[in-house]
Amino acid sequence: MATYLKNLSSYDPKHVPSAKNMKFGIVVSDWNDSVTHKLLEGAYNTLIEHGANEENILVKHVPGAFELTLGGQFMGEYADLDAVICLGCVIQGETRHFDYICQSVTSGITELNMNYNIPFIFGVLTTDNLEQAIDRAGGKHGNKGVEAAITAIKMAALQKEMEELEE
Ligand SMILES: Nc1c(NC[C@H](O)[C@H](O)[C@H](O)CO)[nH]c(=O)[nH]c1=O
Ligand SMILES: CC(=O)[C@@H](O)COP(=O)(O)O
């Protein structure tokens, strides 16, 4: 189905494990904060809706998407968390700077998953323009922060299942 017909954030709550007793980090960049703070709201509220406790959600801000990788690494290094959600919004400008930022943050977050063996969720919008970003931050195409939170819960639950196999 073409994106224009989709709410990209729709999901079946019955297929989402409880987030009770899970500990989450959210690192959010403040570039395009009118968008990223909507992503943060969506992610935070979704974690709460699925049973997470407020005291188990650590939120930290970084300047831009490029800094999400190091901000995520700080979370992995200094906090005891079950999953880290990385939220940002990169919007194409006049130059190829967009490409480098997107490539850097994508590979950086991927590497964190491997280095820390906990889920680091890619909740970064990479859009042609502000309208596309707004549509995906609580607009007609849903909220990428909601999707990232659901993914974090599911992956943290999967890790707990796998750890239990070792016991
Ligand atoms: N243009 C956008 C940026 N640029 C800033 C970089 O992310 C970074 O903070 C800077 O290069 C210093 O290291 N960041 C976004 O998040 N979104 C943009 O559209
Ligand atoms: C993604 C960016 O860094 C971008 O906003 C910068 O804009 P420009 O390419 O016009 O310098």
Automatic annotation (TrEMBL):
GO molecular function: 6,7-dimethyl-8-ribityllumazine synthase activity
Transferase listed as a keyword: yes
Domain of life assignment: Bacteria
Enzyme type, top EC level: transferase
E.C. number(s) listed in UniProt: 2.5.1.78
Positions annotated to bind 5-amino-6-(D-ribitylamino)uracil: 31, 65-67, 89-91, 122
Alphabetized UniProt keyword annotations: Riboflavin biosynthesis, Transferase
Binding site for (2S)-2-hydroxy-3-oxobutyl phosphate: 94-95, 136
One Pfam family matching this protein: DMRL_synthase
Presence of keyword Transferase: yes
Pathway listed: Cofactor biosynthesis; riboflavin biosynthesis; riboflavin from 2-hydroxy-3-oxobutyl phosphate and 5-amino-6-(D-ribitylamino)uracil: step 1/2
Catalytic reactions on record: (2S)-2-hydroxy-3-oxobutyl phosphate + 5-amino-6-(D-ribitylamino)uracil = 6,7-dimethyl-8-(1-D-ribityl)lumazine + phosphate + 2 H2O + H(+)
Active-site residues (renumbered): 97
Swiss-Prot/TrEMBL GO biological process terms: riboflavin biosynthetic process
Cross-referenced HAMAP family: Lumazine_synth
Similarity comment: Belongs to the DMRL synthase family.
PANTHER family: 6,7-DIMETHYL-8-RIBITYLLUMAZINE SYNTHASE, 6,7-DIMETHYL-8-RIBITYLLUMAZINE SYNTHASE DMRL SYNTHASE LUMAZINE SYNTHASE
Protein name, per record: 6,7-dimethyl-8-ribityllumazine synthase
